[in-house]
Each structure stands twice: as structure tokens, then as C-alpha cells.
Amino acid sequence: MALGKVRRKETIVFDIDGTLTDFNKFLKDNAYRYLKDKYNILPQDETQLELEDIYGLDLSKQEDKKILDSFWIGPYFLKYTLLERLRTNASKCIAGFKSKGFNVEIHTSRARIADKSAIGFIARLLTRVQMIANGLFIPHKNIFYYKDDESKMQAILDRAPLIVFDDKKEIIDYLSNNNIRTVCVSGQHNVDVEDTKFVKKIDSFEQETIDSILGFFLTQKDIRCINDEIKSQSFYNKIKIVGTFIYSYYKPIVLNAENIVDDVDSVLYAPNHRSTLDPLIIESVLKRHIHWAALLRFFRGEDSIFNNSKNKILCQITKWLFVKLHFFPIERKSDNEKANNYESIKDMSSFLKNNYYVGIFPEGTTNRKSGDFGTFDPAFLTLAKKNNSWIQPITLFWTNEKRNKHKVIVNIGKRFKVSNLDIKEAYDIYMHEQICSMEENKRFCQTI
Description:
The protein has 16 helices and 14 strands. By secondary structure, it is an alpha/beta fold. The strands form two sheets. Strands 7, 8, 9, 10, 11, 12, 13 and 14 form an eight-stranded mixed sheet that branches. Strands 3-2-1-4-5-6 form a six-stranded parallel sheet, with helices on both faces. Helix 1 (23-39) packs across helix 3 (62-83), helix 3 runs parallel beside helix 5 and helix 10 (241-250) packs across helix 11.
């Protein structure tokens, strides 16, 4: 995949200090007494979170920095990481999200933790020990360290998680203003944070409270969609090695690969259609799980993707795969004049709304009498317009297998949005892209 934004729409992000831990309490129980006894100084503003802000320390001054370091670079950081317990039920809450299939990540900007130094290494190590000691088992690749809050906020925004748990008002305001759902864990430093469309404030990690979080931010339809995505993505991950074999066997040539972009926005892939293998070829190139609209007969076990073989076993395998991968059954009017695809269209719309990948073959069939393309049904453009989704044109060209080791050319067109276009304008843009791509495919085929 291309580098850049990473879609993590099933991810729940947790901060540590003040969120998973009661940081306010730890400072009151330890720092207040230590700084009074050693330096004879008292708190100036207890509505703050960080020690330097509570005591009004200016870290550009060496003497103030020395005061802060004397507390943290010593036994108190060890006490905080090795002995301080997480909030009651915090680990249980995270385990609950993981058991439901959510991807859980830790994002922290603890002081010095991102340093490439011995202190930074020790801080990261002790952070891992703190989580493990509290029964919190998070893979190393799911823990992110930042030098400051600004870096942390931008990184979270780029990852576009489903929900973020944090305690700092500045972070909560920034993320919620960018439409990231944020849970504020109450503390003395965020009393003025209020519930909004994108902010929910909680006082504990009690199961009843956590169960209400998804319901606060999402409709039941959204929750079902996310659960379906989690299950189908899990299944896709188990069988995606098939894509590697397909790629190795068919050796697709990819033109305009720079148009493959990872987005946090929803994408509707709209290729031409020449073979039942088209979706497998595209997924082997893009390396991502796409929810395809497919003919109803595949879901009924009447046909298979194995060269359209009617073998009963192959038909049942196809049916099982399509259901597990959460494809959408579509019935053509030419097959049934009473065909009603309303539920599938609603399902596709829900997936696009939740920023997932949907694929539609607008030609509807691989059969055509002549020409490069069949008739493209423009309904997919209406679906994209409704959900403000990107349209990603793709043109496949199957080569002469006997002459070429490369059996197919996949041309990735320039994506566009229908939002401010009428359907005819969007259709003209789409067809222009497809026609130009097909001509490019033909020219390239003559060179291999």
C-alpha cells in the first residue's frame, strides 16, 4: 500500500496519563508533599494536569527544569510506572473492546518518552511494564510515542480512529472539531468539557458506562455495519494469501499506480467487467478488502466464480465466500423484472457512510457482443454522491495468455467526487477516464 494516511476505522485509541491512570491523584499523593518538603513550594493552579503547569514552572529556566527532573528522574517515575494501578476496570474495558474485534492502540506523549536516548528507552520500557503489570497486553506495533501533544494529535487525526479516549481538553477539542469521536475521562483539569455530538464525558470505566459509548456516538445500523466489517476483515486477513498466489500467477501489470491512495474517506471502486476473476485481480493489486456487489445467483449457490462452473461444491464454496466477505447480493431486472435491491443498496450506503471500500461493476455483466465496454448503469454515481464517496475508475484489459506471461493489465484511473456534479457530468468524467485508460492499455499491450 502507498504510504500516507492509514484507515483504522475499527480502532479505539487510549491515552495513558490522566486517562487510563488517575494522574491527578498520583501527583497529589506524591508530588505535592515532595515539592513542599524539598523546595518549599506550593501548587499555584490545581485545575491543571501537568506538574509544571500546576506549579507555574518555566522549563526554559534551568532551576525550574531541575525541580521537575528531580521528581520524575528518580524513584517517583518508577513508583508511578511499576506500582500505580490503572483506573478501576480500565484493563477490563480494553479487553472487552478487543474481544469484540476492535483494534486497540495506545498513544502517549509522556515527557522524554520519544527521546532517542537512554532515558527515552527506559521510559518506553517502563511504560510497557506498567501496562503488563496491570493486565493490559497491547502489541508493540500498537503503541505510539510522541515528543509532544501536537505530534500526537496530528498522528491520531491521520489515523482517523473510531473513538479516542483522552483527558486533555486541548486534545479533545482538536479531535472533536475534526469530527473524531472522543471520550473525555473526567479530571480536575477538564471540568469545563461538555458532551457534544463528538464528545462524551465519563467518570469511570464501569461496564455499563462503556456499553453506552458506542450507542452514544453511533446508530444501531452503524454498529451493525462496523461489526460486519470487523468479522469480514478478519476472514479476509486469513485468506489474503490467496491474493498473493493470484498475483503471482496472473502477473498483472499496473498502470498509473500512483493513483492508488490510502484514504480515511470511503471509496467506491467502479471497474469495467471482463471476467469473474476481476475482483480477485483488483484486490491482489490494491491489497485491501473491498465489499463487492455481486449477482444474487452466487448467493443462492446457483453459480460459481470458478469460470462460472455449475459444480455444486464450487457453487457452495462461492456462496460461503461471498457471505463471509460480506458482499452485496444484486438481482438484475433482466433476470427478474420484479427485482428489488433496496436492502443491498441501503447496506452499501451504510458501508460507504462508515468510510469502507465498496466495489461495483457498473456494466453488470461480462457478456458483450462487441466493443471495449458494455452499457454502464450510472446508479453507482448516485450512491457515491449520497455518501460523499470517491469514485475510483479502474480498467482491466485481459491480454493474449499464450503470447504474454502477463495475463491482465490493470489501469488505475484518476479518482473524483460526484458531490458538486450532476450525474450526467459525473458519468461523462467517468467514461472519459475509462475510454482513455482502455486505449492506454491497448497501446501498452503491444509493447509486451
